[in-house]
Amino acid sequence: MNSPLWNDVDIYFSSKLQESDPIMDSILKANAEAGLPAIDVSPNQGKLLYLLAKLKGVKNILEIGTLGGYSSVWLARALPEEGHLITLEYSKKHAKVANENVRNAGLENKIDIIVGPALETLPTLEKKGFPSFDLIFIDADKPNNPNYFKWALVLSKPGTVIIADNVVRNGKVIEDDTEDSNVQGIRQFIDLLSEESRIDSTAIQTVGLKGYDGFVLGVVKE
Ligand code: SAH
Ligand code: DHB
Ligand code: MG
User: Fold this and answer.
1) Other beta carbons within 10 Å of 17
2) For site-directed labelling of 135, which of 60, 193, 208, 217 has its Cα 20 to 30 A away?
């Protein structure tokens, strides 16, 4: 089967609009060598995350779902000198690969990987000195998206940007009778968003190297 046209278009834009990036390339290579699933954000999506963080001038970022740290490094590159990114990862193996990638990227002073189920580590962040974040990226186990969204609100303040990946899933998001717990998690998350008056949000469908998917973008009201 021919590769969909949007893959070529995605590669066209990244080749034109991104400089050669040995650090990002080496992260994807290390992830593949360690046998991690290739479900990182795409290069163009990573750059979008970076630009959104830059646009907002964020100082503290929370990421739920590290994998090999590819999106973590994109986001952390947007941080000022004193900025910080905390990323939560369930898998010790993924966290080990990510730690190595973060060190190779020279960002070990800015990125902290906290290992464990996110629902157990999220409640520890306030005591660790992080009562709120400027940007929160939700990209872990999709059945827990409603819980992660509730936590994102707890750990937010007026102006906090909340982004969630993989909310379209080849269009499965509109299947209201689905037995797929990932899709159920996304739909419950969207229901919470739709009922939540404290946040302004939208969802954008995307095509590209990650297939047909999309993300939610929200801003906590001032
Ligand atoms: N954000 C990454 C991709 C994350 S993939 C990137 O774009 O580069 C999703 C990650 O969430 C996986 O590494 C998986 O191990 C992790 N994960 C799954 N369940 C989790 C949980 N309960 N708590 C924390 N992390 C979890
Ligand atoms: C999956 C998870 C992701 O975060 C992603 O971007 C793509 C796929 C998955 O669990 O299948
Ligand atoms: Mg994702």
Assistant:
1) 10
2) 208
